Structures are given as structure tokens and as C-alpha cells.
Amino acid sequence: MAYDDLREWISTLESEELLSRVGCEVNWDREIGTIVRKVLNRKGPALLFENIKDHKDTWCTKLFTNGMGTRERVALALGLPKETHFRDITRVVKDRVKTPSAVKVLDKGPVKENIIMGDDIDLYKIPAPQWRKQDGGRYINTYCAVVTMDPETGLMNAGTYRGMITDKNRIGVLLALTQHWGHHFKKYKDMGKEMPVAVFYGWDPTLLMLASAPVMHPNCSEYEYASSLRQEECELVKCETSDLLVPASAEIVVEGFISPDPSTFMMEGPFGEYTGYFGGMAAPKHNIRVECITHRDDPIFRGNVEGITPHKWSEGGFYGAPLFSAVAWNLLENVGVPGVLDVWFNNVSGSTILKVRIKKAYRGHAKQVANALWGSGIGNYAAKIVIVVDDDIDIHDSEEVEWAISYRLNAAMDQLLVFPGTFGSMLDPSTPLHERNIIKYGQGKWARVLVDATINWELEPQEQYGGERFPPLATAINSEDEKRVSDRWEEYGIMPYE
User: Can you tell me the distance from the alpha carbon of 200 to that of 294, in angstroms, rounded to the nearest whole number?
Assistant: First the structure.
């Protein structure tokens, strides 16, 4: 099912007893962030804060978060039963986002109920928290979609990129040129122009799932794929200050421009990032100069605590994992890699490891998988390590994957490969700081690794193995012995037979 807006999604969570309303006064300065972190670590409910210090009388008084902080809630967002496994969620997403669907552009919508311009703009009227003590400031862009347009083709992109309030009308951003909006920005910069930007907060959760994933959309935008994912066309309206389109029933839209002029840069960072570490240290960076804010009556701001370490989660990991996996799977099929049976990028755990299960057809098949992934936009933040296994291994079972690595990988036979000097995450703390200067390099730097844990076809078939390259499994039970024991199982009196 599709959700018409954030409010319908909140109502659904409440009816499923998956929402807690916080009515007592809480402070936007770190108290909210601490509460949310404690709840996330326990896979607790979605939270709606309704009584925020300094925001009793501002035009925005509420903050919603943790709407997607469990697998069950991700399934609900897609209209699936709560118990749906990630394996099946990934397949559903993969099938839905294979092709785009239509969108509808309206003349008006609820997000136009209020329009703020000029000196009346004050981002501090929005209850964006100071999530953590070490954050550089109040981060407003944490669970949002940033919309930009290619100045040559007119095609739009909606991506999730961090942003910190640096002034009442400015949002400092971390702009990587390898990301889609970075491609757009480079074109505007070469033309000597500012780039129009729109940021929207609060809508159907499926669009934010897509905005955080490297969806390939050469002839359209994320909106058309969101229509496919939510199985209902997106209804959009045009911005007040540009031709950018935003959801007609979004809660809040911030419109502005990013200048390429370094004299306009403002200090941004650090921020507690998806890696589980603070990243993007304080430095002068690009910023959005806000020219207009539109919002619904009594709007609800949408935010998110980032950062994943073992047993401490973020909602971005839960909805990002199946989206990245599905997008990677479709990419592999689209570029002609055969025999892909499953893909899993376990962003739930904060991992950059991408696992692929294949029906191996030829020598070098695993290398083809890795090269296709590393040459795509997926490589910005994922697939630092690619593990490829045979069709008898379940990539969702770490025990099976570790067994395959242990006994099918021979590092001396070109099954463990390092591909150095590629672009990669500027937020990975294992890369020296000077190599992560995005103003100088546009992105970070990674040495990528392929772990080919498939049976090596360089091994000669052996007669003693029945013409196979590997010996038979010692844990498999002979069918004749199986029948003999199963016929007498009840006599043994041990346990029920399975």
C-alpha cells in the first residue's frame, strides 16, 4: 500500500502499537538525541515528540523519528506482512524498482498551505536537534530528500545528504562530486551559476528509502521509481523559486541555492555518521542559501540519529539494506552478469561488505561481479569488500559464508584480490584524513577487496571425487543409511525425527 503522507504512516504505526508519543517537555539540545539513541539500541518504537523546549509557539512544534527502525516497520512501509524476512523484502523491492512508473504534477497541495520568504525565514523555528555533543551544530538534514536538477537535461535527482543549520537562512552541506547532486553541481559551476536546491521533510517513507540508495535512473528521477515502489503514482508540485518538483503532501520544503564561490563557504561538521564514527570534520564547506520555506499547517519535522556500531543501530541501516541490495542486484542483471541468485548488503550492521550468491558459469565470474559493482555509483559508500559464493551458500547466514571463505578461498590462487586507488567514502576513518578532502578530490579513496569464495575452477576435476573439483561433504548422510535409521527412529527414544 502507498501512504498519502507522513501522517498516514504515523497513524498506521500507532494502530500497530509501534509508536510512542512523548508529551513531556524535552530539550532539542542533545536530550532528544540521547532518547532516540537509547530507543534505537533496543529496537524500540517510533517516536513523536510533541513538547520540545523553545518550540511551544514556533510554526513547527513536533519531531517524528525512528519510523523505520526495525525490519518489521520496513516491511509495513512496503505494504508487506510485518514478519517478512529481509531476503523476501529485497526481492520485492528488486522487482518493483526494475522499471519506473508515472508521476502526477498538481497545481497545488497541502505543502503550500504556508509560504515563508525573505526576512521571515528562520530555520531555528524548526525543532532540528543538536543530536550529540560532538556534532558541529543542529543537523536539520538527516532524514530528508535533497532535490536537484541537471541543467542540461532537466532530469531531477532526490538524494539524502547531511546538512547543518549554520545561520537562520543557511544550511551547511557535505557535497561530494561523485554523488548525483555533485554531478549536477559540477555542471552549474562550469556554467558559472548557482544550483537550485529543494529539501523536503516528511512524506511516504518509500521515497526516503529510494533517496538513500544509488538508484540508476538515466531517463527520469527517483520520483518515478518511488511510484513503482509504493505502487501508486507520486503527486508533486513545483517549487516557488525554481522548477524543481516536491511531494504535494510533504510536511516541510526548504528551497534555496548553492553557490560555487568559496567566499560563501561556512563551517560545517563534524557529524556522527553512518560508519559509527564522527566524520567530515569541521571545515568551510558549501551551503544552501534558503530563499523560501513552504509547509503544511501544524507541520511535523522528520529527523534521524545516524551511526551504527555492533548492536547499536540506526533506522537508515534497516531501510537502506534491502534498497542497496535490490539496486545492486538489478545493476548486475542490467549489465549482463548472469546467474545472480541473491544479493545482500548488510547495512543493518553498518557493514560495507556486499555479498553475492551466483550460479557459477565460468572462470572469472566472481571478478565480473566485483568489477560491475565497483564501476557503478553503488561504489560511493558500499562494496568496499565484495564476497561472492556459490549457489549452495545462503548469504544471509554468516555461518555458511564463513565456512565458504574458510574452505573454498585460496588466497594464493587469485581468489583474494585488492583493487587500490578507487573512489570511496570520504567518511571512512580507515582512510588517512588528507585522502578524504572532498574539496580537493571530490570524494574519498578506497582500496577494494574481492573475496572469491566460490569453488576455484583452476582446480582439476578428480576421479576420486566423482569428477568434481572438491570432495563430497562429510556431513551429508548416505541415503541408504538415512532410510535405515529413519525406519527405526522411534525405537531409539532420543528426540522427534526431522
Answer: 9
